[in-house]
Amino acid sequence: MINIQLFRNDNCEITGFRVTGHADAAPRGQDIVCAGVSALTQSALLGLEQCAKRQFQLVMKSGKLVMDLTGNPDNLTQAILETMVLGLKEIACNYPQYVRIVENRR
């Protein structure tokens, strides 16, 4: 199962996220659930880095992706991250046996 943790501050702004695990919905290279989650999270990271010019701490290895913003979120950062969350929630809705999303306050 893919476990997604979203971290929000007191203003409900996303300050980071953690994605761990594997969906195991299909053989490696054919797993559309893993591919969808990976595409959304990687696109969000590219958007933060290249469009929003945001700094963040990143840990990336097999089965684990952790991103924490450095500094306070701004409107563009939130637009990118909330769009990612919309896509992730849609995947979780369609494949609840493979994806779980939890939101936490920091």
Shape: globular
Tell me the radius of gyration: 13 Å
The SS-based structural class is: alpha+beta
Please give the order of strands in the largest beta sheet.
3-4-2-1-5
Summed up:
With 106 residues, the protein is α+β, with helices and mostly antiparallel strands. The protein is built from 2 helices and 5 strands; from the N terminus they run ββαββαβ.
Q: What's the structural blueprint in terms of helices and strands?
A:
Blueprint: E1 2-8, E2 14-20, H1 32-51, E3 56-61, E4 64-69, H2 75-94, E5 99-105
Parallel strand pairs: 1-5
Antiparallel strand pairs: 1-2, 2-4, 3-4
Helix pairs in contact: 1-2
Task: Kindly describe this structure.
The protein has 106 residues and is of the alpha+beta class. Helices cover 38% and strands 31% of the residues. It has helices spanning 32-51, 75-94; strands at residues 2-8, 14-20, 56-61, 64-69, 99-105. The protein has a 5-stranded mixed β-sheet with strand order 3-4-2-1-5, with helices on one face. The longest helix is centred in the middle third of the chain and has 20 residues, at 32-51. The chain starts with a strand and ends with a strand. The model has no long low-confidence stretch (mean pLDDT 96).
